[in-house]
Write a structure and sequence with these properties.
The structure holds 2 protein chains of 2 kinds.
Chain A (H helix, E strand, L loop, with lengths): L2 E11 L6 E11 L3 E5 L6 H9 L6 E6 L2 E2 L8 E4 L10 H5 L1 H5 L3 H8 L3 H12 L15 H13 L5 E5 L7 H18 L2 E5 L3 H7 L2 E5 L6 E6 L14 H18 L7
Parallel strand pairs in A: 3-8, 3-9, 6-7, 7-8
Antiparallel strand pairs in A: 1-2, 1-4, 4-5, 9-10
Chain B lengths: L1 H29 L10 H10 L1 H35 L1 H16 L2 H12 L3 H25 L3 H9 L4 H38 L5 H10 L3 H29 L5 H5 L3
Helix pairs in contact in B: 2-10, 3-4, 3-6, 3-8, 3-9, 5-6, 5-8, 6-8, 8-9, 8-10, 9-10
The chains are: A alpha/beta, B mainly alpha.
Chain lengths: 266, 259
């Protein structure tokens, strides 16, 4: 498959600070790929997402998305964060439809279709993540896990070609998180957007990623970029097989190394 | 159940007003306080009724100047608040200026307005405007400046312009702040217009009270105070009602809970 995202010799130093957030990095992501970025905290994982979305400019190097150099905020990238950031004055359905209000060409039709086609589309997506019938509720009436599901719907409603996820399952309990992995995988296999997922959870990275990018502690640089070969759709049972565990263990060792901690002692 | 509780609240607050008047009346009788110092409430109400036709145009004048000043103040306040709330630079540049401006006692400004525009309604409107503007500016700016950065990232990555973000996120989330400031601003607007009427006007409640106190007609002075208090409470209540309608989502615990 063709490259969809390319970071060419990109580094980033946040303005006003001497901290080098991202050391010169080169990274390629295939179209329709699912890349999981793992690494110790503060290693520039989220920085990569912001660079790809064009929210911050690179200090050196070029970021290319879909053969176009990124020069400013992108138009129509889906994003989801650890915090669901729903707007409390809108219903859940209206929150999910928010991108349709912004992204072209949907925004021109928003006024005429918000009660019909767009509402149906939001409702269908909510149903897929297990929130059927919750469209008319207000965000504060939903639990954290439900809000995160809604937040995924908001990231996907306009069928973006690129999806950037910054620890979207990080604040959830393990059972909810694992349910959402399955849902995420299903949604991805359905439309095959290109996904970059930043996570601290190594099992999550192995379950969801077609590739895993391992980063070092600050200043961030890529230590390893490897393919995950398990067949799709992956299942929860698979995560307890020796092959799967071996990969997780390998990744865990790498992280321990990069933090300068011996795993046996920890 | 909620209804009975609400009714009880209303009855209680009504009774507290009544109790205040009764206590006041009783105190005046017991200590035989002179009318020139503190008239009895019954006297004030009699004054209100007898002089109602004469007082009405003055009350209308004060109400209209206050509302005009308040309206202008809110419009200017929202405009300035949006400007300094959505740009860090504008915030840094304009804030010291604004605080300095607000620190000037408005009594000191009235004579300047009178010099510029002559005595009458215009200085009253302008005083009401300048005095009611500041809380609106501060609250609108705060509401806008505290938008979650992650939410802004979500929208910016979708290609949202600054205007899109302001319209879809900034302004709606500022509404509770705005209404909180409107309730303060409407009371302040009365202070401003009456202040100006006291200094330079030939109409309005402030003017009536000024002349009445010059004539030692203390019951009339108090009648003026009662009118102002009534108007203030009425407008406050109207804005509370609109607030409940517009920003009900922010008061989830009381009226809005469904499950």
């Amino acid at each position: 498959m063709a490259e969809f995202i390319e970071l060419d010799q990109v580094s980033l130093r946040y303005p006003g600070g001497n901290v080098l957030a991202l050391e010169t990095t080169t990274l390629k992501v295939d179209e329709g790929g699912f890349v999981a970025i793992v690494g110790p905290s503060g290693c520039g994982k989220s920085t990569i997402l912001k660079l790809v979305a064009g929210l911050i400019p690179a200090t050196t190097g070029n970021v290319t998305v879909d053969k176009c150099e990124v020069r400013g905020p992108s138009k129509g990238v889906g994003m989801a964060f650890q915090n669901p950031t729903m707007l409390p004055w809108l219903t859940v359905r209206e929150n999910v439809m928010l991108p349709l209000k912004i992204v072209k060409p949907f925004r021109y039709e928003y006024a005429s279709k918000k009660k019909t086609e767009f509402a149906d589309r939001a409702e269908a997506l909510l149903k897929r993540v297990g929130l059927a019938g919750f469209g008319d509720k207000r965000p504060w009436q939903l639990s954290g896990g439900m809000l995160q599901r809604a937040s995924l719907c908001r990231a996907l409603i306009h069928e973006p070609r690129l999806l950037l996820l910054d620890e979207p399952f990080g604040a959830l309990d393990q059972f909810t998180r694992e349910e959402l992995w399955a849902i995420m995988q299903e949604l991805w296999m359905d439309k095959r957007p290109t996904v970059i997922l930043v996570t601290h959870d190594l099992r999550e990275a192995c379950y969801l990623g077609t590739r895993i990018v391992m980063m070092s502690a600050r200043p961030g640089r890529i230590l390893e970029n490897s393919a995950v070969e398990f067949a799709r759709p992956r299942t929860l049972v698979m995560t307890y097989t020796p092959e799967f565990t071996a990969i997780v263990k390998h990744l865990r060792m790498q992280i321990a190394d990069s933090r300068g901690v011996a795993l046996e002692a920890a | 159940m909620t209804l009975t509780q609400q009714t009880r609240q209303r009855v209680l607050s009504g009774m507290s007003v009544l109790a205040l008047f009764l206590l006041w009346e009783a105190a005046c009788w017991i200590f035989s306080v002179s009318d020139l110092i503190l008239p009895k409430p019954s006297q004030v109400f009699r004054e209100l009724i007898v002089r109602f036709p004469a007082l009405l145009p003055h009350a209308t004048q004060t109400l209209l100047t206050t509302l005009a000043g308040f309206g202008l103040g809110v419009a200017a306040g929202v405009l300035i608040g949006v400007m300094i709330g959505s740009s860090k630079l504008a915030y840094d540049v304009a804030y010291p200026l604004l605080v300095g401006f607000n620190s000037i006692p408005k009594v000191a400004v009235v004579p300047i307005f009178v010099v510029w525009f002559g005595a009458g309604a215009v200085p009253a409107i302008l005083t009401a405007m300048t005095i009611s503007m500041f809380p609106v500016v501060v609250n609108v700016a705060t509401g806008l400046a505290t938008t979650e950065p992650e939410l802004e990232d979500v929208l910016r990555a979708l290609g949202a312009s600054k205007g899109d973000i302001l319209w879809n996120v900034g302004l709606p989330r500022t509404m509770p702040y705005l209404f909180a400031s409107l309730k303060i601003a409407i009371s302040l607007a009365f202070v401003g217009s009456v202040l100006s009427e006291t200094v330079a006007a030939n109409r309005g409640i402030g003017n009536v009270m000024m002349i009445a106190s010059g004539n030692f007609d203390v019951p009339l002075v108090f009648a003026g105070l009662f009118i102002l208090a009534f108007l203030g409470v009425a407008l406050y209540a109207i804005f509370s009602l609109i607030e409940l309608k517009v920003t009900g989502w922010a008061q989830r615990k009381t009226e809005f809970t469904i499950i």
